[in-house]
Task: structure prediction
Amino acid sequence: MSSPDSLSVTSRGFYERAKNKVAGSIFLAATCLTLLGFCAAAGGIANGNTIVLDEVDDDGDFADTLRARSAGWGFASFLFFCCFVVFFAVAIYISPLSCGSPNEKKMLQNPHELEGGYSAYSEEQPAHAQAAPSQV
Result:
């Protein structure tokens, strides 16, 4: 097994970017679970307000307040769920383990030297040959 410390600058940069993508994906997945918890809590509060509203015989301001609170918490629960779905999709999309390139998957399992020219982000690019001036 090769050590990441023995890789070239380009391969090491590629390896570090893949590791950062995994860390970001894990962070987004944890945020998804938090949003799902907020969704359940808001839905429970909305349901609790609806249960209290069913028990109340008053049709005055208190019942209107309970209806408004139930609708507001229900809408909050819906928005938390929508955010959960979006964050979950993004977490899967940026994860190199599920949607990454084959080189990212191999690099995370066993760091190795990349083939020449694959991802030269930090190395200088070869200068293109300049065209000879045209003779008029």
